[in-house]
Write a structure and sequence with these properties.
Shape: globular
CATH superfamily of the largest domain: inorganic pyrophosphatase (n-terminal core)
Radius of gyration: 20 Å
CATH class of the largest domain: Alpha Beta
CATH topology of the largest domain: inorganic pyrophosphatase (n-terminal core)
Distance between the termini: 43 Å
Number of strands: 11
Order of helices and strands: HEHEEEEHHHHHEEHHEEHEEH
Helix content: 40-55%
Number of domains: 2
Length: about 325
């Protein structure tokens, strides 16, 4: 399938690369790695990396503007996104020619050519596999984008990591002399306001009898600490090792988009199927969701708590 996707790339003079809303380093890393490699191998092609910008990830290049509505002769490649509703592009349905490269569980079929491997650490790992299988040249800039994506989605190789992941990361670092310390500064440096905000999250997290931990963060609190609605989600992996917790979630009010953003993690119960019922989705142990009202916030919290309860009961049986 990766070879077929490569043949599709060869056919089109204009290529648009999109990824999911609520961007993260793997989405951006796989997106920009693909763009830079296509530009390197096919300099005559027009390649656009599109989506909503995020000031937090300003170590990636600026995203491109692409607003053409006549896309009969354009190829859309979607990375790191399993469902159509989460593709961060306004005119998705105007693209008749779509390919997908993703490591999430399957939800929607996008086009004729889809490459999905849920055992891979990240979309960035799959993009690197795409390069290798098709003998596509890439440079140090591309290698750094891939490294950002792999390191971020594995939380510094703490999960979703296989022998293959370590093998390809070794090759990236060795072949392109990647400065790991410098890249880690970009990935993990935080302003003091976020450090204080993390203290607030820890202090105000609720823990249920079933092992669900959660915190609801209002816009007033975000303003008090000088952070935005994405900040809590950026910290959600920091609560990975609490003995009493098996599922945890940060819930942030997003006034700009009139919604509440859930970032959910698990150490056992499968959470993505629940997230899919609340305008979200993701991995079995790492998912997100978006709801409009506090009533829906409470419904999702209840569903997660019941999931934890069922999981504990099954473990005892």
């Amino acid at each position: 399938m990766l070879k077929k996707i490569y043949e599709e790339i060869k056919k089109y003079d204009t290529i648009v690369i999109a990824r999911h809303i609520g961007v993260d380093p793997d989405a951006l890393g796989s997106q920009f790695a693909l763009k830079t490699a296509i530009n390197l191998n096919f300099p005559e092609k027009k390649v656009y990396a599109v989506g909503t910008k995020s000031s937090r990830y300003n170590y990636f290049p600026k995203l491109d503007k692409y607003e053409d509505t006549n896309n009969e002769n354009t190829l859309l490649i979607v990375v790191d996104t399993p469902d159509k509703k989460r593709v961060d592009i306004s005119n998705f349905n105007s693209f008749p020619n779509v390919c997908k490269i993703d490591h999430h569980p399957f939800i929607d079929k996008f086009g004729e050519y889809e490459y999905i491997d849920t055992k891979s650490s990240s979309a960035s790992e799959l993009v690197l596999r795409f390069f290798v299988e098709n003998n596509i040249n890439y440079n140090k800039e591309t290698a750094e984008y891939l490294y950002y994506g792999i390191v971020s989605d594995t939380n510094r190789f703490l999960f979703n990591t296989t022998f293959e992941t370590f093998r390809i990361v070794e090759k990236l670092v060795k072949d392109y002399e990647i400065d790991i310390e410098e890249l880690y500064k970009h990935l993990y440096a935080r302003p003091f306001s976020e450090v204080r905000f993390q203290g607030y999250i820890s202090e105000n997290m609720t823990l249920t009898d079933n092992g669900l931990a959660y915190v609801i963060i209002t816009n007033n609190t975000l303003q008090e600490y000088g952070v935005d609605s994405s900040s809590a989600g950026n910290m959600v992996n920091n609560y990975n090792n609490i003995d009493e917790v098996i599922v945890w979630a940060t819930i942030s009010e997003d006034v700009k988009n009139n919604q509440y953003k859930f970032n959910i993690r698990s150490r056992g119960p499968v959470i993505n199927t629940i997230a899919e019922h609340y305008n979200g989705g993701g991995h079995a142990m790492a998912s997100g969701a978006r709801v409009k009202t506090l009533e829906d916030v409470q419904l999702l919290i209840n569903d997660l708590d019941n999931l934890c309860k069922k999981y504990l009961e099954e473990k005892r049986d």
